[in-house]
């Protein structure tokens, strides 16, 4: 149960929101996660009620140069709005990529200034842009001026504890035409360590009038309500807490319910089949392994390591689905037995 002193009603998450001229159906969104939020994952999250979903990060220069992976990340399947996240370090490539993305059906373009991965920041993209606000603004301005669809921005609190500049960048981004901002309540140097600072996000709320979306460590409905209260944000975005449960944003929004063990097994089987179809069997098996691991970690945490390893390395798709379902069912039965015994 949520603490009694939570003043924000749960209905705050189920109401709609506007980003520019685009209506968002509720206020619990799925974060863009490279290597995670591919089209199969987004389709499931959308079906279970996420307010909006965002593509994996698309590298702007690679897209312009026709890299196959970048084009694959643009794919959509009837999800509206279609939100594409772009990353880059040069205004020229960001503008050209934005033009391509808009021409290929994007309803909103999100600029990545939050990714902490070394391979991204090492190329002076992602959260590394926060170290040079003037340069970051040149990318934002080039993107906004190139397209007619709303442009949004996702970033962290700052590069490190000595450079908390999200409020400064947010204010300048709004002036440049950005129409919503998402803040992950950590610095880049924290990566995903420690606890997200929800209170620090409020400093951004205080300097912008456009929608603010809060991100970081939102695991439960109570977390979602509390981050809105403490940050003053208009919506929440969930990332890692959705791994192994693509329905999670819909649960936070109050439009879906957590499935029982049989329901989890059915969703997993569908998710697994979708990935194999999307990527092809050989590549799909590799991409699916991390998802298999997340489902097992959440719903069969006591599965022996040898059994888990056998499932993760299996190339028999039907067998994997059966074994995951059996592991989840067995774990649930054991949990119920322990609860009855207690």
Automatic annotation (TrEMBL):
Its cofactor is FMN. Keywords: Flavoprotein, FMN, NADP, Oxidoreductase, RNA-binding, tRNA processing, tRNA-binding. It catalyses: a 5,6-dihydrouridine in tRNA + NAD(+) = a uridine in tRNA + NADH + H(+); a 5,6-dihydrouridine in tRNA + NADP(+) = a uridine in tRNA + NADPH + H(+). InterPro entries: Aldolase_TIM, DUS-like_FMN-bd, DUS_fam, DusB-like, tRNA-dHydroUridine_Synthase_C, tRNA_hU_synthase_CS. Its EC number is 1.3.1.-. GO terms for molecular function: oxidoreductase activity. It comes from the Bacteria. SUPFAM superfamilies: FMN-linked oxidoreductases (SSF51395). Residues 30-302 form the DUS-like FMN-binding domain. Transmembrane segments: none annotated. NCBIfam families: nifR3_yhdG. Catalyzes the synthesis of 5,6-dihydrouridine (D), a modified base found in the D-loop of most tRNAs, via the reduction of the C5-C6 double bond in target uridines. Belongs to the dus family. PANTHER family: TRNA-DIHYDROURIDINE(47) SYNTHASE [NAD(P)(+)]-LIKE. This is tRNA-dihydrouridine synthase. It comes from Sinorhizobium numidicum. The gene is dusB.
């Amino acid at each position: 149960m949520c603490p009694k002193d939570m003043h924000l009603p749960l209905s705050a998450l189920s109401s709609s929101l506007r980003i520019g001229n685009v209506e968002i159906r509720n206020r619990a969104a799925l974060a863009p996660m490279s290597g995670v939020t591919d089209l199969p994952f987004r389709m499931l999250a959308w079906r279970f009620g996420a307010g909006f979903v965002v593509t994996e990060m698309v590298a702007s220069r690679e897209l312009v140069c026709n890299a196959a992976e970048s084009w694959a990340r643009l794919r959509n399947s009837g999800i509206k709005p279609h939100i594409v996240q772009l990353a880059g370090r040069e205004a020229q490539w960001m503008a050209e990529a934005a033009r391509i993305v808009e021409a290929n059906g994007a309803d909103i373009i999100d600029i990545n200034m939050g990714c902490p991965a070394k391979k991204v920041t090492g190329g002076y993209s992602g959260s590394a842009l926060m170290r040079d606000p003037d340069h970051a603004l040149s990318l934002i301005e080039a993107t906004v001026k190139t397209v007619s669809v709303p442009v949004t921005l996702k970033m962290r609190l700052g590069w490190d504890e000595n450079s908390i500049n999200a409020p400064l960048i947010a204010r300048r981004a709004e002036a440049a035409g950005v129409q919503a901002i998402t803040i992950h309540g950590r610095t880049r140097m924290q990566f995903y360590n420690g606890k997200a600072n929800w209170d620090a996000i409020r400093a951004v709320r205080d300097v912008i009038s456009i929608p603010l979306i809060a991100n970081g460590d939102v695991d439960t409905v109570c977390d979602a309500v509390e981050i809105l209260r403490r940050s003053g944000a208009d919506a929440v975005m969930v990332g890692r807490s959705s791994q192994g449960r693509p329905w999670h944003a819909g649960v936070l929004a109050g439009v879906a319910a957590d499935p029982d063990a049989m329901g989890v097994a059915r969703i997993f089987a569908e998710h697994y089949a979708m990935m194999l179809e999307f990527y092809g069997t050989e590549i799909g098996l590799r991409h699916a392994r991390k998802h298999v691991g997340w489902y097992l970690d959440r719903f069969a945490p006591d599965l022996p390591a040898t059994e888990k390893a056998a499932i993760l390395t299996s190339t028999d798709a039907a067998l994997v689905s059966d074994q995951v379902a059996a592991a989840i069912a067995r774990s649930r039965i054991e949990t119920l037995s322990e609860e009855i015994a207690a």
